[in-house]
Amino acid sequence: MQHAARLNALTVGLDAPLLVSRLSNLRYLIGFTGTNGYLLARPDGTCVFFTDGRYAEKAEELVAGLPAASLLISGTDMWEGMGELLNDLDRVALESHGVTWDFAETLREKTGTEPVPTRGLVEELRRAKDEEEVGCLRRAAAAGDAAFGALAGLLEQASTEADLAWGLIGVMRDGGADVADWDPIVAAGPAASLPHYEAADQPLGQGLLLLDYGCTVGGYHSDMSRTVWLEGEPDDEMERVYRAVAESQQAGIAAVGPGIACGDVDEAVRQVLRGYGYEEQFVHGTGHGVGLEIHEAPFLRRGSEEALQVGDVVTVEPGVYLPAVGGVRIEDMVLVGADGSEVLTASPREFVLR
Ligand code: ZN
User: Fold this and answer.
1) How many Å lie between the centroid of ligand 1 and the Cα of residue 33?
2) Could you tell me where the beta strands, DSSP code E, fall in 84-144?
3) Residue 151 gets which letter from DSSP?
4) Mean pLDDT, range 152-175, rounded to an integer
5) Which long-range contacts (CB under 8 A, 24 or more apart) does 75-78 make?
6) pLDDT (tens digit, 9 = 90+) per residue, 93-152?
7) Which of 29, 150, 270, 284 has the fewest beta carbons closer than 10 A?
8) How many A from CA of 315 to the centre of ligand 1?
9) Does the pLDDT at position 1 exceed 60?
10) With contact defined as beta carbons under 8 Å apart, do 97 and 120 qualify?
11) How far does residue 29's CA lie from ligand 1's centre (Å)?
């Protein structure tokens, strides 16, 4: 029944019919996991799900479980079906961050209904994760931790960054997770200075190794980063960078709590890095929400007055990058609870891998 409750939470807040088209939102609202569908949600609480024949059987099942929803299956001309769906409407709200300009223009042309932009209506509801969602996030985080726990063994098998990336994926899959829709970042040596480096056929070497990866469980993502020094005495400079990032990350995690502005968490992280003289080398935001999407609301960025809420799951991931030398990022997932926050990822945070 959680889908009915979610639909209800959406429709009570609407002042015009909304055509939900973002797939992550359709998954959240009605459990649809296909690649083509539209949900017309009306302020009176009723909904129509519109999809094509490939999904008819599954869609019937989903809609049957929803008291105020009906189903419309498109024929070969999708716009004809859309016209039927929007039949009596002068205006319809679209998810402006999820449709193309072309879609909005064609909708106006073919259906005579005026599209109106809205932003983030369903995403706002998605922020408060319920128990079942937190369960999925926990299992996804645990699979990521299992992969990190297997690192020493994986390194024995892997000779390149790309090998290790596959190794991490393999452990997460064995732990019951699905492969995420993004590839692990495995960056050895100076490549670690590139925040979104892609694993390549580069040898792993002996020194710095930055990992940023995740998986999904029930559609819910995990996201974590660790940076380790593989063998021998770590470089002095990188050790100092590591200390700065580790301290700033702890300050960020400690700052997370209900009612706290996202910008204040960012500032807590930044303050520590500033003290070390590395603020300029911190070139991205402090963190992001994580759920059905790997990056979702809220965003922990500089100056954001958006307040954290109970049920938000956010990453805290400061990084310092010294071009051509190397970089350090440490990232954990944090659940905002009514009485304190909980770090969902549990991997150790020592610099030197033992
Ligand atoms: Zn992240």
Assistant:
1) 23
2) 91-95, 114-118
3) H
4) 94
5) 78/52
6) 999 999 999 999 999 999 999 999 999 999 999 999 999 999 999 999 999 999 999 999
7) 284
8) 6
9) no
10) yes
11) 24
Q: What is the pTM of this model?
A: 0.94
- What b/e string do you get for 187-206 counting C-beta neighbours within 10 Å, with b at 16 or more? bbbbbbbebebebeebebee
| 222 C-alpha to ligand 1 centroid (Å) | 9
How far away, in angstroms, is 19 Cα from ligand 1 center? 29
For tokens 């303050």, what's the residue?
271
Question: How close is the Cα of 57 to the center of ligand 1, in Å?
Answer: 36
Angle at 229 between CA 225 and CA 230, to 5 degrees: 110
Closest CA to 313 of 128, 125, 120: 128
pLDDT at 179 over 90: no
Q: How confident is the model at residue 336 (pLDDT cuts 50, 70, 90)?
A: very high
| pLDDT class of 284 with cuts at 50, 70, 90 | very high
